[in-house]
Amino acid sequence: MQVAVVTFDGFNELDSFIASALINRCRKDGLEAFVTTPAPVVTSMNGVEVTGQRPMDFVAEAGVVLIGSGVRTREVVADERLISTLRLDPSRQLVGAQCSGALVLARLGLLGSMPACTDVKSRPFVEACGVTVLDEPFHAEENIATAGGCLASQYLATWVITRVLGEDAARDVLGYVAPVGEERETVERALGAVGAGRATVR
Amino acid sequence: MQVAVVTFDGFNELDSFIASALINRCRKDGLEAFVTTPAPVVTSMNGVEVTGQRPMDFVAEAGVVLIGSGVRTREVVADERLISTLRLDPSRQLVGAQCSGALVLARLGLLGSMPACTDVKSRPFVEACGVTVLDEPFHAEENIATAGGCLASQYLATWVITRVLGEDAARDVLGYVAPVGEERETVERALGAVGAGRATVR
Fold first, then answer.
1. B159 near B125, Cβ under 8 Å?
2. Which of A13, A24, A137 sits opposite B180 (nearest CB)?
3. pTM (two decimals)
4. In this structure, which long-range contacts are made by residues A85-90, counting pairs with CB atoms below 8 Å and at least 24 apart in sequence?
């Protein structure tokens, strides 16, 4: 299954790359992530130029779509043309958002009555969309998930891996990348936050 | 102070971007990180093309040099020309390495008798250089640090921020990027691993 990690200009490297790098540890099992961008090259909030691996059309065909965060998300949601390229369908896709990415899901009307996680700076803007913001790192209902705090992108990745390949695959990935001597703690924290796929349906 | 995050072809995005993104949260305080590469563009282990922000010459003038990890580090240490561009001087620079980056420090003869942290795949190659590998996520002595497990790159960043700007600055950064609802736990774990700058001199 293919994962689109949607990455806009001004993106936060933590969001796009923690999620994509963790998911790409599962490439041998057929799960792979691609940095998906609205232009051939995007520039991060810290001035790093990254060449997109897939164009925005890829969003419609991916099995999983993760919306990254950044310093220009409010411009993104005000851009009708850009927003129209995000054709998401949670009935057949897993859809996740990191930090300010929750604002994109709210703008697309995908959150419905479900609460969301985000970062402190994005919080008032997400709330202005009528969405309740949780003081938690991760929340998922059915096929939609949000995470708050950039390092929580590991929970989005854990959710995707668990939903697509199962808990053992997530354990393998987290066990490998976790700080040495803290593997077990990291794995249990991530699977606990995600509910190991069990608590994802309300 | 400027930080060179040395990033080779085949690099692991977690290593270079967790460290650089966390450090760049301190740009307003004069501490900033630059992706430093041996070619104008490098390609990650997952096929992501990134344009370097600084050439390798920058290593000699940076106040801090962090060596990232990747799938081609053994080729890097076998490349005399490339290794000769890494002119590091721990008497005036902070020098850190992530996962297989420890192999680069070993190759440069910078570890002396100090033990190092690395990942499980790199471990036998680091040990073959006569270096003792610790089952710990982070270890520093004076101006040299190593971290093991890709997500432990947050400890390298914490060490740099603590050494240059102090513990409060590190608390601010980690408090902002940590998963919402887990800020305190994340901050304490990171500062604990680093010893908050207090345990860095043997």
1. no
2. A137
3. 0.95
4. A85/A38, A85/A56, A85/A57, A85/A59, A86/A6, A86/A56, A86/A59, A87/A59, A87/A60, A88/A59, A90/A142, A90/A143, A90/A144
State the CB neighbour count (10 A cutoff) for residue B13.
27
Report ipTM for this prediction. 0.94
CATH code, residues A2-197: 3.40.50.880
Which two three-digit tokens encode residue A171? 């354990």
Residue in chain B nearest A26 by alpha carbon:
B46
DSSP string, B135-201: SSSEEEETTEEEE-SGGGHHHHHHHHHHHHH-HHHHHHHHHHHSPTT-HHHHHHHHHHHHGGGTS--
- Are residues B120 and A176, on separate chains, in Cβ contact within 8 Å? yes
Q: Which two tokens stand for residue B76?
A: 């890097």
CA distance B132 to chain A (A): 15
pLDDT tens series, chain B, 202 aa: 999 999 999 999 999 999 999 999 999 999 999 999 999 999 999 999 999 999 999 999 999 999 999 999 999 999 999 999 999 999 999 999 999 999 999 999 999 999 999 998 999 999 999 999 999 999 999 999 999 998 999 999 999 999 999 999 999 999 999 999 899 999 999 999 998 545 443 3
Q: Ramachandran region of residue B141, left (φ > 0), alpha (ψ -120 to 50) or beta?
A: beta
